[in-house]
Automatic annotation (TrEMBL):
Allosteric enzyme that catalyzes the rate-limiting step in glycogen catabolism, the phosphorolytic cleavage of glycogen to produce glucose-1-phosphate, and plays a central role in maintaining cellular and organismal glucose homeostasis. SUPFAM superfamilies: UDP-Glycosyltransferase/glycogen phosphorylase. Keywords: Carbohydrate metabolism, Glycosyltransferase, Pyridoxal phosphate, Transferase. This is Alpha-1,4 glucan phosphorylase. The lineage of its organism: Bacteria, Pseudomonadati, Pseudomonadota, Gammaproteobacteria, Alteromonadales. It comes from Psychromonas marina. InterPro entries: Glycg_phsphrylas, Glyco_trans_35.
Length: 831
């Protein structure tokens, strides 16, 4: 049943939202008009891509109007705003979401139907805007949705990558990367703003200029200049009371630069210089949690921070001349350490260009910046070589040295004579190759530092930054992640959304706690039936997609057991793999082995240079080949690895999952957000006590999840005692036989040993992520899953209890937490 307008009207929250007046006829007219006047085609000739384009442009007529109203409102009132700086915004597709947020989805669906078109098919034409790697980038996308929905003045700043995250395909089971081409034929959602271009210096040297009054100041003579061209993507809040912007910077060569002097070589060399400038925003670095210390990456970071800081100051100066007011008007949130260079950049502008006194400038910076930490993995903490810094950003290095010098005095005052404390806390890491530690610079400067789930934020205090915590006892805080229910329930699972409209009222969309209304009814047979029928429908849809993408036939009666996330050893796809091999072995050893048919589904990209991650993909593909073509398993076991996992594919997977795999080594997944999307859509979690799984267990009740494995404390203890994976290998015959299987050529005929390095890393390699230690407990959890699924009433009850308890994990709640504890922001929706 479609969400009836009358239901929506019942709720006060939705009631306040003025509905945009638009009939199906008007929408038809607008779309056909765009086909004619915008694209020079007509309804007969147009292909689906053209229909998509025309529909987007028709929607933009409403969006741009609301955008102007919002900008005038914010600018007119000179509101305090948050500036969310992120190297990644994993937006996915925008049409379906914009339509839902404008409450024009139904009308557009009808309009297109009258024109002989299916809106869902049209939405599928849109290329994903994949300007991010994974959770961190998708979080930024959910956050800007929530900021707009809640009516907060906010702007997202990022890079307008020409190529987002690579497209993945498989060749003989191995990952192949191809460039992503999301903008090949233009992007209807973005507006170029040449009037707001910025100029960015790089390289060169620093001169000390002596002033007449006896003082001095620094002048940075750049060796190169880039031009930053802003592209604005409107971000429509639910109900369209606010349309904020995401401003993405594209790099170009700067004509203002003195090309005659710089390029004595002439026209051709000048063109080559131009291409060099344009490489800066060419491509997203594909490394999740493993930053690469490449010069181009540092240039990217500085380029977008410099453009953004200048843009922020330009807006500030429109209404203000008093620098003490900057921290009243501006909060800058650093999404991980990637935009840290914004800190010395703001210092540089205030001290060198605005000629403010150092202490005054520093006091401003300390009130403007806040920093979010997303990971404890040591390899993910960014450190830049001092030599590289000196070459690319000589003035910034000087500024960092001065910040550090003054900070070392603070450390000396707290711990007199303690050089080890100084070494630990210094922004500069000493050694043969001296490094700038970006996280330290962030913690020293920021007025708040937050982790992304309760357990993670505690570990930030106790393990990552204990001395900083002692020094600044109120600085480190927690804001648990969340996901937007607009995309991750309303748009991606329309049937379950309609059920919730009926059961709890349509305003769950802006108040996810309302889902609790179904908890008392979890045993209700009629509700269970409707819930499970929807799940079945979604599984049938997914089965078609699986067939399309891989050729593998799967039954919607099987348990759909899904692990989708970046491929990383700490996320332990290899543990899932070991258990699949064990099931396969049980089925081969005993053809009557009694198990509920199970489909294991994977989606994951590996960083192109991450060998072990690529090996795990290869192994899973090879295992899938064998298992899926082995008649002896009688269809009880299937394995599929879907190629090119991305946001738009995720939207088809979460609604169809029975089991959500959240199996990281405890203490290593800072939060996770896929865990939340699965549970909202009624999947049961098999997971460790890690990241946000812990808070999910608090909300849902651990007894309604399949919790297994070592806790954070137990992991620490085992590592302290000295962990030996061979103890587990020799004591568990099934585990041993599974690992030994990898040494044969069973899965890679003619190539024995092709999978041996996975086994090696789990044994001789020391099994850093404790897969063997957690294996038995994981395998047991899966037996419980099998047993429970046989009782569909119990399963349905649990699924409802999971979904209904997910109110907390809504990104609106995260944003309200940021707004009150960190940003001190006030709402300014269009009245
Ligand atoms: O646990 C996730 C978390 O849910 C964490 O691994 C991820 O951020 C998510 C959102 O908070 C994350 N990504 C990165 N670090 N943590 C990262 C690091 C370097 C480059 C790209 C991404």
């Amino acid at each position: 049943k479609a969400p009836a307008k009358s239901t929506a009207k019942k709720s006060s929250a939705v009631n306040k939202v003025p509905e945009i007046e638009c009939t199906s006829k008007q929408m038809q007219q607008a779309i056909v008009d765009r086909l004619h006047k915008g694209l020079g085609t007509d309804a007969e000739k147009a292909n689906n891509k053209a229909w998509w384009n025309a529909t987007c442009h028709a929607v933009n007529e409403v969006v741009f109007d609301k955008l102007t109203q919002t900008q005038q409102n914010h600018s007119g009132q000179d509101t305090r705003s948050v500036n969310y700086l992120s190297l990644e915004f994993l937006m996915g597709r925008l049409l379906s979401n914009n339509l839902h947020n404008l409450q024009l989805f139904k009308v557009t669906e009808e309009a297109l139907k009258a024109l002989g078109k299916d809106l869902y098919e049209i939405c599928d034409e849109e290329p994903d805007m994949a300007l991010g790697n994974g959770g961190l980038g998708r979080l930024a996308a959910c956050f800007i949705d929530s900021l707009a929905t809640l009516g907060y003045p906010a702007i997202g700043y990022g890079i307008h990558y020409e190529h987002g995250l690579f497209a993945q395909s498989f060749q003989d089971g191995r990952q192949i990367e191809r460039p992503d081409t999301w903008r090949e034929y233009g992007n209807p959602w973005e507006i170029c703003r040449p009037e707001s271009i910025q100029h960015v210096p790089l390289y060169g040297y620093v001169e000390t200029v002596f002033d007449e009054d006896g003082g001095s100041h620094k002048v940075w003579h750049a060796g190169q200049k880039l031009k930053g061209v802003p592209w604005d993507v409107p971000i429509v809040g639910y109900g369209a009371k606010t349309v904020n912007i995401l401003r993405l910077w594209e790099s170009r060569a700067d004509e203002a630069f003195d090309w005659d002097v710089f390029n004595a070589g002439g026209y051709v060399d000048a063109q080559a210089e131009k291409s060099k400038a344009e490489t800066v925003s060419k491509v997203l670095y594909p490394n999740d949690e493993t930053p690469e210390g490449k010069e181009l990456r540092l240039v990217q970071q500085y380029f977008f921070c410099a453009c953004s800081v200048k843009d922020i100051l330009r807006r500030f100066k429109r209404h203000n001349t008093d620098w003490t007011k900057l921290s009243d008007k501006v909060a800058i949130q650093l999404n991980d350490t990637h935009p840290t260079i914004a800190i010395p950049e703001l210092m540089r502008i205030l001290v060198d260009e605005e000629r403010l006194d150092w202490d005054f400038a520093w006091s401003i910076c300390q009130k403007v910046f806040a920093y979010t930490n997303h990971t404890l993995l040591p390899e993910a903490l960014e450190k830049w070589s001092v030599a590289l810094f000196e070459k690319v950003l000589p003035r910034h290095l000087e500024i960092i040295y001065e910040i550090n010098r003054q900070f070392m005095e603070v450390v000396e005052a707290k711990w007199p004579g303690d050089d080890s404390k100084k070494a630990k806390l210094s922004i500069i890491e000493e050694g043969d190759d001296r490094k700038v530690c970006m996280a330290n610079l962030c913690v020293v400067t920021a007025y708040k530092v937050n982790g992304v789930a309760a357990v993670h934020s505690e570990l930030v205090k106790t393990d990552l930054f204990p001395e900083y915590h002692e020094l600044f006892p109120t600085k480190l805080v927690n804001v648990t992640n969340g996901v937007t229910p607009r995309r991750w329930l309303k748009a991606c699972n329309p049937k379950l959304a309609a059920l919730y409209d009926d059961e709890v009222g349509a305003d769950w969309v802006v108040n996810l706690d309302k889902l609790r209304g179904v908890l008392p009814k979890a045993k209700d047979v009629a509700l269970q039936k409707r819930f499970m029928d929807i799940k079945k429908d979604n599984k049938i849809e997914l089965a078609k997609i699986i067939k399309d993408l891989t050729g593998v036939e799967v039954s919607a009666d099987a348990i759909f057991d899904i692990q989708i996330k970046r491929l990383h050893e700490y996320k332990r796809q290899q543990l899932n793999m070991m258990h699949i091999l064990a099931l396969y072995k049980r089925l081969l050893d005993n053809p009557d082995y009694d198990m509920v048919p199970r489909v294991f589904i994977f989606g994951a990209k590996a960083a192109p240079g991450y060998h072990m991650a690529k090996q795990i993909i290869y192994a899973l593909n090879k295992i899938a080949d064998k298992v899926n073509n082995d008649e002896r398993v009688k269809g009880k076991l299937k394995v599929v690895f879907l190629p090119n996992y991305r946001v738009s594919l995720a939207e088809k997977l979460f609604p169809a999952a029975d089991i959500s795999e959240q199996i990281s080594t405890a203490g290593l997944e800072a939060s996770g957000t896929g865990n939340m999307k699965f549970a909202i859509n009624g999947a049961l979690t098999v997971g460790t006590m890690d990241g946000a799984n812990i808070e999910m267990a608090e909300e849902i009740g651990a007894e309604h999840m399949f919790i297994f494995g070592l806790s954070v404390a137990e992991v620490k203890e085992l590592k302290q005692q000295g962990y030996n994976p061979f103890d587990y290998y020799y004591n568990n015959p099934e585990l041993k036989s599974v690992l030994d299987w990898l040494d044969t050529d069973y899965f890679t005929p003619g190539h024995p040993g092709a999978l041996s390095d996975i086994k090696r890393s789990l044994l001789e390699g020391g099994d850093e992520y404790l897969c063997l230690a957690d294996y038995a407990s994981y395998s047991e959890a899966h037996l419980k899953i099998d047993a429970m699924y046989r009782d569909q009433a119990v399963w349905a009850e649990k699924a409802i209890l999971n979904s209904g308890a997910m109110g907390k994990f809504n990104s609106d709640r995260s944003i309200e937490d940021y707004a009150s504890t960190i940003w001190n922001l006030t709402k300014h929706p269009i009245s």
